[in-house]
Each structure stands twice: as C-alpha cells, then as structure tokens.
Amino acid sequence: MVFSNVIDHFVPAVPVSLIQVVLGLGAALIMRVSIPLETDWFLLLFIAPLLFNDGRRFPKRELWKLRGPILANAIVLVFLTTILGGLLFHLIIPSMPFSVSFALAAILSPTDPVAVQSISKRAKLPEGILHIVSGESLINDASGLIAFKYAIAATVTGVFSIKTAAIDFVYISIMGFISGLVIMAIILMIENWLYRQGINDVIFSTVLQVTTPFVVYLLTEEFLHASGVIAVVAAGIIFHFYGTAPDRSQPELKLVSEKTWDIIIYTLNGIVFLILGIELPLATTNVIQNNKINTFAALGISFLAWLILLAIRVIWIYAYQAVSSIRSRKIKSLQTKQMPTFKAALLAGLSGVRGAVTMAGVLSIPMTINDGSPFPSRSLALFVAAGVIIMSLVVATVTLPLISEDKAPLLTRANSTDEPDEIDADAVEDDTDTNYISEDEARVYIMKLAVQRIEEERRPSNQKEAFDLILDYQFLIRRLELKLQDKKEMDSIISDELALRRVALRGERAAVQKLYDDQKISKQAYLIASAKLQRLENRMIRSIGHKVKLGHGTARNFVKLRNRISLWLIRHKTDQDISDELALIQREQAKAAISALSDYFARDDIDNQRFDSQSVYHLIVHYRNQIELAKDHSKKQIKDQAMNYQSLRIKALAAEREGVQVLLEQGNIDWSMAAHLRQYINYSETVLIMDYQNQ
C-alpha cells in the first residue's frame, strides 16, 4: 500500500486505487497471496470505521442546507438503483437469482465521495447538480449497504416476504439510527465525566475515539439486531456536532486524533483495494471454469452493468434538476444559465465512481447459504462489481482532463488528503484573480522575512545560533527558488554558484597552506584539512554538467559517513590531540574564503549583477557559521546557545506569521492559502515547544 502511493507520486494521472488493484493482482499471481474473508469481521473492521469517519467529517452547514438532495439521493436513488438495476441485471444474467441481482445493484449504488467532489468541482457543474452529487455521495453508503445486506440475507435463508421485508427494514433502520444516537450520547457523557475527573490524557482520549465505531457497531448488531451501518453514521454525525467540547481546552487532542484518523482511513482504503486485486484471480478463475458463461461474456456483462448504473444516474439527475428548475422559476430565483442540460447530467453521472465501500461490501458476500450449498453466482457478482469499479475509475480518469481546465489528477478515498474538514461556503468566493501567487512563492516571501528578523536580532552573544538558523532557512529558500526557476535559469544559477565555490575553495586551500608553512599546524592536521578540501573539489568537479540534487538523499548520507570514517582513521593515526589545530584551520579557512569572495567581486571584469543574491548570501552565511562553530564552547555556553536558538526561532516564526497576514491583506493569497501557511507555522511552533520540553 505504501509502495502504491510512491508510484502515484510519479504517475499522478493514474488514480492510486487502480495502482493498488494492480499491485494486489500481482501479489496474488506472483506470490500466491490469498486472504480468507470472514463476512462479519470484514464489515466490522472496514465498514464501521469508514462510515463513522464519513459522519464525523460531515460538514454541518451542508448537512442542513442539502437535506432535500441528501435524502432524495441517499434513499430514493439508492433503492431505485437497487430495484431497477436488479431487474436489468437479472435480464442480462438469467442464471443469477433475483436476490443476488438486487444485492449486486445495491452494493454498486454507493459512490466514492472524494471522487465525486474531485470531478464535480473541476467540471464546474451547476449548483443544483453539485447539491445532488454531494448529497448522494455523503450518506448513500449506509442505505446501499442496508439494501445489500437484506438481499444477501434473503439469498442465504431463501425466504422473502415484502411485508416482512418492509417491517424489518423500518425496524433495522429506525432502531439503528436511534441506537447510534443513544450509544454515542452515552459515550460522550462518559468521556466528559472522565475529563472532569482529570482523566484528560490525549492518547487515552484518542484511543477512546478510535474504538467508538466498533463499540457502536457491535452493540447495535449483536444486541439490538438493527443496522450497525446506520448506527455508526448517526454516531459520527452526533460526534461531529457535540463531541468536540474538550478540544477547545485541549487543542492537542484535536491535532492528534485527526491525524490518527487520517492514518486509519488511509490504511483501510488502501487495503480494501489491494484485497480487490488479490481476489480478482479467484473470481476470474471461477468465471473461466464456469461452462455457462465465458470470460468475454463476463466482461461484456460488467460493461453493460456500468452502462445501466450510468443511465439510471444520468436520468435521475436530469429529472431532479428539471423539477428543481421548475420550482425555482416559480419563486423567480433561477437564472436561465442554470437550466438543466443533458451534458451537465452526463458529467454528474460520470462522477459516480465506485470505491472502497462497494468493494468492502461485495467481498463480504458469504461463501455458502444456510443449506450448505455454495452462494449462487458469487464469483460472477464479484467479477462484475470489480469490473464496474475499475471501469468507473478508468472512464473518470480519461474524461476528467477533457471536461476540466484543471489538469489535477482524479482523487479517491484511497488518496492521502489533508483537506480541511469543513469549509464555510459563504466565506469562499469564486475569485479568479491572477494576482495570486503560488504557495512556493508565498513561502519564500515569509521565510525571507524570517531571515531579516533574525539578522535584526543577531548580537555577538548569539552569532552562532543566528547563523545556524539563517543557514537552515537559506537551504529551504534556495530549494524553493530553484524549483520556481525554469531549467535554463536554474542551470545558470547552479553554474555561477559552482564558480563562486571554486573561488572560495582556492582561498581555503591557500589559508591551509599558509598555516602549515608558518608552522602553526602539524603535518597530521594539514593532511586532514587537505584531504577534506580535495574531496570537496572532487564533488564540485563531478557535479559540473550534471543535475544538482537538493536534499539529503541516501547516497549523500553514505558519502558523509564515508568521509567521517576517513577523517576518524587519519586522526587516530597520531597520538597527539589536534582538535585545537583543526578548529584553527576551520576559522582561517572560512575567513580566507570570505576574503577571496570579496576580492573576486571587487574585480573590474566581474559583473556582480549576474550572480543570484541568494546564492551569494548562502555562501557568506555558510562560512560565517563555520567561524562560529570553530569557537570553543563550554557546557554553560552550549546551554545558553540552545536558549538563544529557541528565542530566535520563536521570533522568526512570528515574522513568518506577520508575512502571511501581509500577503493576505495585499491580496496576494486567498484565505485558504493563508490558513495552509499558518497551519505549517503552527506545526513548526509545536515541534519547537516539544523539543524544548524534551531538552
């Protein structure tokens, strides 16, 4: 699963869900991996936390504002798809019993909410259609799974009665909803009571949150025999409204719990699609060995099933939008440009990507029924479901770039996202102002302000810490600026920087030679310094004509380790302590390098304007930092340095925060970008406090 997201980074055009399916298929075919699935455990471990998280992150405004589309699509459209789709599935697959056809149509009705939003926003659908697809994708998991579960139960028991089914459906739905509300209310009461008693440990509270959906699901299913699916959705919504009271006094709990949930959902979604890939060979083998239907016919059935589901969605969405338009015209609030169009309905239909919940449900189909015989058409149902999921993903991937000006890749629930839980739609405007700068440009601006603040705060007593911090910022600034430059400009900057480094290196070598000639250092110290300079020069020579890689890669770390071992061996060949001599060499080398650069810039034949100011500043700070590092520091000085560094870091972060506000007020960034930048600053400040506490 981790490897699939690495691939997704390099091939963003392919949804990570498809990559995970392919990797699962490879694991099954090459490594003979198989996973025996227990239905009850699978629903508990995958469905419960996924749906609880959906309810927990349900936007409060949207929950009330879109109540009409939500109920219409989450209930009416799901059961329309189940009944109509089930009948049509039975027509094209006569060997599949009605109950299994209904179960297959029911489990194919839920759509991936992240994929729906990804397509609908980029396609710039009308507001009415955005409402309908939003409402459909947020709750239809629960109603689809209820219909699926009941159809499976009818197949397993062989008993079906419309009257009994209606009564049971009302009971399991209403009781499941009430159960979720009551159990969640009790859990919140217990949590608040524990908090008042002083049991407010962040890890304890996070674990309590994580175990909540499993408790709600088990109690509802085992003791009340109601819908655990509806219960966990209801519990999640109640938690979203009333379960955040301790967060105001414990902001750390909000951060830790949210990231913990991100990890859990990220992992569960990835595993579901890997299991899909692993199960594909089993389904394919059984279909191939079935004399009643061949593989090509199964593929054709999968395509027809996808077309049926698409047609139902498109017709429903077009009809719903037409009714909404008539109603809106009566109150004179609808503009002509918002009239329903078949194209918009088709785009909304294509947004119905099937995802993790569909796969989790279909994989939970039992192997046998009550009399011990195999579950009818299980392999074909699994094959068709997998085919519809893959087709919907592939079609959306192909059509998304064609219908959208935004070329960003399709997102699904299997993607790792860091989007905010809730956005105030009234506060966000559709602004296409071209004055907005990119996030990288904004970060460069605020980090330069931080460097400027550090320079203002630099004193003789905190020189080392100031240069350390400036150097850290310079690495980040240079990395971002090189990324912002085009290839030609970047190559020019790198070439000029290498030229400056060679000038500085000649100054360093001359300083070492002078110290040795004046007999201020021993031969051993001279050899160590010369060897180090030679390695630096070799690295620069190798880098000429090649792409300079920024960062701290594994190969670079191995080179550093090798160099340290070499220096250690040379030092231990002598019996005398030469640390003072090495410190002297470091100081004089740095001074000589700065002097050589100053002389170079003072030459008449050198155009100083051609050199990148950040490259020059970075070199100067690097050598001034070397001078400070070479000074003798006592334990008390080291402790003072840590405090000085913390103080400077806090002031630098304050400057970054002020820079974000300046960019926002000047209209260079929007509120969303400002929130993202501030979040990064807040994280940095939190890490700084944690480091201080650990020290």
Automatic annotation (TrEMBL):
<dbReference type="GO" id="GO:0015386">
    <property type="term" value="F:potassium:proton antiporter activity"/>
</dbReference>
<feature type="transmembrane region" description="Helical">
    <location>
        <begin position="296"/>
        <end position="323"/>
    </location>
</feature>
<feature type="transmembrane region" description="Helical">
    <location>
        <begin position="41"/>
        <end position="58"/>
    </location>
</feature>
<feature type="transmembrane region" description="Helical">
    <location>
        <begin position="263"/>
        <end position="284"/>
    </location>
</feature>
<dbReference type="InterPro" id="IPR018422">
    <property type="entry name" value="Cation/H_exchanger_CPA1"/>
</dbReference>
<dbReference type="InterPro" id="IPR006153">
    <property type="entry name" value="Cation/H_exchanger_TM"/>
</dbReference>
<keyword id="KW-0406">Ion transport</keyword>
<keyword id="KW-0812">Transmembrane</keyword>
<feature type="transmembrane region" description="Helical">
    <location>
        <begin position="225"/>
        <end position="242"/>
    </location>
</feature>
<dbReference type="GO" id="GO:0051453">
    <property type="term" value="P:regulation of intracellular pH"/>
</dbReference>
<feature type="transmembrane region" description="Helical">
    <location>
        <begin position="344"/>
        <end position="369"/>
    </location>
</feature>
<keyword id="KW-1133">Transmembrane helix</keyword>
<dbReference type="GO" id="GO:0005886">
    <property type="term" value="C:plasma membrane"/>
</dbReference>
<keyword id="KW-0915">Sodium</keyword>
<feature type="transmembrane region" description="Helical">
    <location>
        <begin position="381"/>
        <end position="403"/>
    </location>
</feature>
<feature type="domain" description="Cation/H+ exchanger transmembrane">
    <location>
        <begin position="14"/>
        <end position="403"/>
    </location>
</feature>
<keyword id="KW-0472">Membrane</keyword>
<keyword id="KW-0813">Transport</keyword>
<keyword id="KW-1003">Cell membrane</keyword>
<feature type="transmembrane region" description="Helical">
    <location>
        <begin position="12"/>
        <end position="35"/>
    </location>
</feature>
<dbReference type="GO" id="GO:0098719">
    <property type="term" value="P:sodium ion import across plasma membrane"/>
</dbReference>
<protein>
    <submittedName>
        <fullName>Sodium/hydrogen exchanger</fullName>
    </submittedName>
</protein>
<feature type="transmembrane region" description="Helical">
    <location>
        <begin position="169"/>
        <end position="190"/>
    </location>
</feature>
<keyword id="KW-0739">Sodium transport</keyword>
<dbReference type="Pfam" id="PF00999">
    <property type="entry name" value="Na_H_Exchanger"/>
</dbReference>
<dbReference type="GO" id="GO:0015385">
    <property type="term" value="F:sodium:proton antiporter activity"/>
</dbReference>
<feature type="transmembrane region" description="Helical">
    <location>
        <begin position="70"/>
        <end position="93"/>
    </location>
</feature>
